Amino acid sequence: MNNWKYNLYIIWVGQFIAMMGMSMVVPFLPLYIRELGLKDPQQIAKWSGFVFSGPFLFSFVLVPVWGFLGDKYGRKLMVVRALIGLAIAQVLIGLSQNVYHLLIGRIIQGMVSGFVPASMALVSSTTPKEKTGYALGLLQTATSGGTVLGPFVGGFLADHIGIRPIFFITASLCFVSALFVILKVFETKETQNKNNSGLKDNYSFVLKSRQLRLIVLMIVLVQISIAFNQPLFALYAETLHIDKRFIASIAGLLYGTMGVFTMIGSPIWGKFNERYYINRSLSIAASIAGLSYSLHFFVYNPFLLAFVRAILGLALGGLLPVLYTLVSLNSPVERRGGIMGIASSAQILGNLIGPSLSGLTASQIGIRPVFIISGMILFVIANLSYRKIKYLSE
Question: pTM for this one?
Answer without folding.
Answer: 0.79
